[in-house]
């Protein structure tokens, strides 16, 4: 989508959260922006995922199998690691941490 450049977007919490991700040249995933119903769109300087978590997420996206407990745990951890940038009230309201 030209207005929201990213490698992939995940719709979370039954479509109430949209998380746009990109991948750096080393294969590490990072959040570009995240939008929450009732809170708006949050962007900033997000940390990158570990290489291992990045590979797990990318493989799940490629297989269209992102609804696993392993992916959920990875995303929760990642969102928690970025809670200094992502609004903590939005994360809590949407049960993402």
Attribute tags:
97 residues; alpha+beta; 32% helix
Task: Please give a structural write-up.
It is a single chain. With about 100 residues, this protein is α+β, with helices and mostly antiparallel strands. It has one domain. Helices cover about 30% and strands about 25% of the residues. It is built from 3 helices and 4 strands. It has helices at about 50-60, 70-80, 90-95, and strands at about 10, 15-25, 30-35, 40-45. The longest helix is centred in the last third of the chain and has 13 residues, at about 70-80. The termini are far apart.
- Count, helices: 3
Residue fraction in strands = 15-25%
Spatially, the strands of the biggest sheet line up as 1-2-3-4
Order of helices and strands: EEEEHHH
Rounded Rg:
12 Å
Average of pLDDT: 90
* Residues in helix, %: 25-40%
Question: Short summary of the structure?
Answer:
With 97 residues, the chain is an alpha+beta fold.
Blueprint of the fold:
Elements: E1 8-12, E2 17-23, E3 29-36, E4 40-43, H1 51-62, H2 69-81, H3 88-93
Antiparallel strand pairs: 1-2, 2-3, 3-4
């Amino acid at each position: 989508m030209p207005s929201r450049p990213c490698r992939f977007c995940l719709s979370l919490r039954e479509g109430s959260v949209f998380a746009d991700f990109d991948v750096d040249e080393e294969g590490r995933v990072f959040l570009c922006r995240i939008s929450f119903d009732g809170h708006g769109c949050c962007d900033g300087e997000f940390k990158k995922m570990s290489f291992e978590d990045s590979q797990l997420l990318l493989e799940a996206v490629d297989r269209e199998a992102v609804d696993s407990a392993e992916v959920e745990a990875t995303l929760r951890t990642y969102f928690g690691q970025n809670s200094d940038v992502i609004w903590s009230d939005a994360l809590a309201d949407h049960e993402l941490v």
